[in-house]
Amino acid sequence: MKRATAKLIRTYERLTYEQLPIAASLQRSFVDGQGIQEQAPLGEVKIGGVRSQFVPSEAGFPLAFRTRLAPRSFFSAWIGPSCLHSGAEFTVEVQCENQQQVQVLARFPIEGLSGNFRRWRRVRLDLTRFSRQQITLFLSAEVRATKDCGVLGWADPRILRRRGMREYYANVRSRLAQGGVRALLQSIRALLKGQSDPHSLFAEYPRWLDKHRPTQQQLAQAAKSAATFPYQPLISILTPTFNTDSEILRSCIRSVQAQVYPNWELCICDDGSSSEATRRVIAECAEDDTRIKANFLRENVGIAGATNATLGMATGEFIGLLDHDDELSPDALFENVRLLQENLQADVIYSDEDKLDADGHYCEPFFKPDWSPELLLSSMYTCHFSLYRRQLVETVGGFRPGFEGAQDYDLMLRVIEHTDRIFHIPKILYHWRKSRHSTAADAQAKSGSTDAGLLALREHLQRVELQAEVFATDRPNSYRVRPSIRGNPLISIIIPHKDLPVLLDKCIRSINARTTYRNYELIIVDNGSSTPQAQKYLSTLPHRIIYLNEPFNFARMNNLAARECRGEYVLLLNDDTEVIAPGWLTAMLGYAQLPEIGAVGAKLYYPQDSIQHAGVVLGMRGVAGHWLYRFPGSSRGYFNSLHTIRNFSAVTAACVLLRREVFECVGGFDEKLAVSYNDVDLCLRIRQAGYRIVWVPEAELYHCEFATRPKVLDYQEVEYMKKKWGTALLDDPYYNPNLTLESGGLALRF
Length: 750
Prior knowledge:
By secondary structure, this protein is an alpha+beta fold.
C-alpha cells in the first residue's frame, strides 16, 4: 500500500460516510467487559505514509466504547503491531443496552506480520442490525507467541455511517439554494481536501468579528460607564491550573487584568503542578497584582478539588469560571455587571463564546439561545462565560469530586434545582483555546467527561423525580432524555383532508404500520371532498370522519375536531405526512405529559431528505420561519442542533402534540388565521400561559409541504399577526440576535 492509496481511501470515506473517530474515547475495561476503568493511552503511527491515531491493546483489558448507533453504521479500523510480529488475533465484541451477554462479532487472526505496510490489515464490520440501539464495543488483541514484544493495537478506529443518494441530492440542493453553482463547487473542493466548508457560518466569522469587536474607544467609554454603576459587586474569577504552558497562562491572566470593569479578584489554585514554570508565573503575577490570589497544592486533587479550593479563596458576591488556558474578552465583566443593574435578582448569567486556535485566530462562534431548560438536559450549552451567585454555589455544595470533566455541568444541574433566575448575554465574551488536551479542539479529548456528564444528568433527574431513560448520543457530551410514559392515555390524531385520497392513505398506512404506541384514534376532517375517488375512499375508512363543507380554514377544522375527540391528548397532523421513526409518538408523548410543557413538535423532512421543519423562529421573513430550512437531512446542524431536544418559541402544526386541557385552556386556534401562522399564534398563546414548547428530533416524518394547498401567503394575516403580537415577533428568546432573520439558512447578521 502506498501513500497515495491511503489518501485515496480516506478521501473515499469522507465522501461516502459520516465519520465518528473513537480513538480518544476508547477506555480500558475489565476482562469480563464490566466496569470501565480508565482512558486508554493514545499514540500515533504511520500507515502508508499517512499519520494515524493508534490505541494499544493490553491483554486482559479490552478497549471499550459506548454509543447509540445510527442506521447503516459500520466499524472500521486498521489492526496490527507497532513493530514486527509473528502473529496475533484481534477480536471485536458487542454488548447491547439492558443485556448482560457480550457477543463476539468477529475474530481476525493475522499471521507473519512483517514489512512497514504488510503488517497492517484493514477491517470493517457491518453494525446495521444494532441500528438505533445503545451498544458497547469491546476491542481486544492477543499475541500468538510469547517471544513477540511489539505492541498490538487499533489504528484510526471509527464508526462510519453510510450516506444514501438522497443525502447527496439534499446536500447539493441545499448548497445551490444558499450560494449557487460557484458555492457548490467550492464546497466540493473543500470536502475532497478534507477542509471545512468555505461557505459555512464559521468562514464568515472573521469578517463579522472585525465589525462587532469593541474598539478601544468603546472600551474606554465602557470603563467610564462602569464607574457610574449604582451596583458594583466584587467578581471572583476562579482558575485552577495544572502544568499550564507559561505563555498561555500569562495570556489568560492578562485577559483578566485587561477587564474594563475593575472590581474583580482572580483566585488561582495550582493543582500540584510538576512544572516549575507554571508555578513561577502564578507567583510572579500574584506578587505584581494584589487582586490576584494564589494557592499551591502539594498534591494533585483533580479539577473539582482544585476549583473548590479557588471557591474557598473567593470573597466576591459572584464567581466566574475561567479555564487556565482560555481568555476573556476585555468587556466580559462589564457586560455581566451592566446586566445586573437592571436584574439584581439574577443568580446565573452566561454569554456566547468562540474558540481560539493555535495561530491565535478567533473561530467557531457559538451563538446561544436564552435560557432553554430542555437544551441543558441535552448538553452543557451555557458553558462559557458563566457567572454564578457565590452563595448559591456554596448552598448546593460547590464542585463534586467524581464528576471531573463535567464538573461545571454537574454544578449547573444542581443550581437550576434552586433557581430559574438565569440570564443570557448574546455577545462573545469568552475565547476557548483549542489546545491539544482541550475539548475545544477535540470533543473527545476528555473521553471520561461524557460518562461523568451522564452520571450528573441521571442524578439530577432522580433529584427532581423525573422518570426517564437517559443515554449518551453518538456525539461526545451530548445526551438524550426520554421521559417515561405514565399510563396508557388515548391520543386523538386529527387529520384535515380534501380530495387527495392517495396522500391520506399513505399517511394512515404509515401510522398504522410504523407506530409502536398503539392507543390512538384517527379523526379525519373532510373539507368538502368532491371527487368520486375521495368520497369512495372515505366511505371505506373505519375511522371517525367529520364533514365540513365550507371554505378552507385550517384553524376552524382543527378546533371543530378537537371538540369531538375522545383523547386526553390531541395530535394535529397534516394528511401529506408519512411516519418514518416507529417511536415518534412515544418520544412526543413523554414530553407532552410533563406539566410544564404545552406543545411538542416533530422533525419533518421533505421527500428528498432535506429539512422541512426543525423548529420555528420568530421574526424570520417578517413573522416567523423554519430554522435550518432545506438543510440536508443528514446534517448535524449548528452545534448538533438538528439532533438535540430543545425549546422553541413555536413549532409547526403539520405535526404537533398537545394535552387537550392546554389546547382548550388557550382557546384553540384563532380562526381569523385561516391559512397562515395559526400554529405560531397558538404556540405564542401557550407560552403566554406559562408553558414551554419542545422540539423532539426522534419524532421523524416526511412532509410533502404544499402538496394539498398552494403556497399562498395572505398579507392580511401577516398584518394581523404583527398587530396582535407586536415586538414579541422581533425578540425570539430561543434564537440569537447575532444570527440572520432573512431566511431559514445559517448565516451571521451583519
